[in-house]
């Protein structure tokens, strides 16, 4: 009589073992999901260094940045013109104090930190992609393409903040966006004496004082409205954003002039990066990379790229402020803005504000590249 063999241990599975296998398989399945969110320390370092570079560069030149915007959008024959760099800065200080120098810098830094971080990170990654992670030579066309694509990516991601910053810079300046002969409407009884006014508005206000001094003296700052129709609540980042969305077609209004900006930024950033790396190879050879040499490379690269692409910047500002209430000139598009400026002011109108902008760009780009490399070297030791 033959006895049946004992059951094999592999054929029987206990509930504990089964639960253990399911847990292991579940961990195995879930593991790749967490790896999708992983960001390498190198990419994170590019992002942090780029953000620090942007904030430092813009804060250093905040007064000149605001002056550039004002000179770009003010009419050629309007009242209260900002003329000359020194006189304009002195006027800005006299009328608005230190806050006038920093007006719009908060939102500018809020915009420039992600803008610069995205730009530098995208540029570094595109360089690796074009060169197959160092297996191919990085020539000038590849640098230009990397910079151009990085510029487009960064500007599209932060454009609404740029537009709101431009509006804030213009809204509090004592300059009329209305050309001579088209006087803006002034509500004299609602304007406090602490708000700087254009020349024509001062006459209207003086007349109001003669006819009704009691009304003028009873105006409170809380209910004050400027000559351009902006309340105190409007002169904040959130307030200006809501005002644009409310009066200019919703979210679409926050992207007015985006195409013109992207077209101008692409060659500007491309030339900027390509010129900087080219100059670094000449001005800072091995053993001669002093601070002043690095700063000189950034200043020269920024000046070259800005001069070549400045007309695009002028058109961008024109498009951004065309929806403001006290501006009499409206543009249907970038081409219309270009034709209007050339017809009214000639080609020179496309370079208005270039000089103060070059004074701004040289230290700004120099600071940007220097801080970027400094922070990157600190986070990623060579």
TrEMBL record:
Gene Ontology CC entries for this record: mitochondrial membrane
Biased composition (Low complexity): 10-20
DNA-binding listed as a keyword: no
InterPro entries reported in the protein's UniProt record: MCP, MCP_dom_sf, MCP_transmembrane
Phosphoprotein among keywords: no
Main location: mitochondrion
PROSITE patterns noted in UniProt: SOLCAR (PS50920)
Compartment(s): Mitochondrion membrane
One Pfam family of this chain: Mito_carr
Topology with respect to the bilayer: Multi-pass membrane protein
Domain of life where this protein originates: Eukaryota
Keywords from the named record: Membrane, Mitochondrion, Repeat, Transmembrane, Transmembrane helix, Transport
Solcar repeat start-end pairs: 41-129, 138-282, 289-378
GO biological processes: transmembrane transport
Segments of this protein annotated with the region Disordered: 1-26
Gene3D superfamilies, per the entry: Mitochondrial carrier domain
Family as reported in the entry's similarity comment: Belongs to the mitochondrial carrier (TC 2.A.29) family.
The protein's name in its UniProt record: Mitochondrial carrier
Lineage: Eukaryota, Fungi, Dikarya, Basidiomycota, Agaricomycotina
């Amino acid at each position: 009589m033959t006895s049946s063999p004992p059951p094999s241990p592999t054929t029987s599975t206990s509930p504990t073992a089964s639960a253990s296998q399911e847990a292991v398989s579940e961990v195995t399945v879930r593991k790749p999901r967490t790896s999708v969110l992983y960001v390498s320390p190198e990419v994170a370092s590019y992002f942090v260094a780029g953000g620090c570079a942007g904030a430092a560069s813009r804060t250093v030149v905040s007064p000149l940045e605001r002056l550039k915007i004002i000179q770009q959008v003010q009419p050629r024959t309007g009242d209260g013109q900002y003329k000359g760099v020194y006189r304009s800065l002195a006027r800005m200080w006299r009328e608005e104090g230190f806050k006038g120098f920093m007006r719009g810098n908060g939102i500018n830094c809020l915009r420039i930190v992600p803008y610069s971080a995205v730009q530098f990170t995208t540029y570094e990654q595109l360089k690796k992609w074009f060169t197959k992670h160092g297996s191919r030579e990085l020539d000038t066309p590849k640098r230009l393409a990397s910079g151009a694509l990085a510029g487009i990516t960064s500007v599209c991601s932060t454009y609404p903040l740029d537009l709101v910053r431009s509006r804030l810079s213009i809204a509090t300046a004592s300059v009329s966006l209305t050309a001579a002969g088209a006087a803006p409407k002034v509500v004299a009884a609602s304007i406090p004496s602490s708000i700087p006014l254009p020349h024509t508005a001062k006459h209207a206000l003086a007349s109001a004082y003669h006819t009704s001094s009691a009304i003028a003296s009873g105006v409170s700052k809380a209910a004050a409205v400027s000559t351009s129709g902006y309340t105190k609540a409007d002169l904040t980042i959130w307030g200006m954003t809501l005002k644009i969305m409310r009066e200019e077609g919703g979210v679409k209004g926050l992207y007015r002039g985006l195409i013109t900006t992207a077209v101008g930024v692409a060659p500007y950033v491309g030339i900027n990066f390509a010129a900087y790396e080219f100059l670094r190879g000449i001005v800072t050879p091995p053993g001669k990379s002093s601070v002043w040499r690095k700063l000189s490379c950034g200043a020269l690269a920024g000046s070259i790229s800005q001069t070549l692409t400045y007309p695009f910047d002028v058109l961008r500002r024109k498009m951004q402020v065309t929806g403001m209430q006290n501006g009499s000139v409206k543009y249907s598009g970038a081409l219309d803005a270009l034709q209007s400026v050339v017809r009214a002011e000639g080609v020179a109108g496309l370079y208005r504000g270039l000089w103060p902008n070059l004074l701004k760009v040289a230290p700004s780009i120099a600071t940007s590249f220097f801080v970027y490399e400094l922070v990157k070297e600190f986070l990623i030791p060579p």
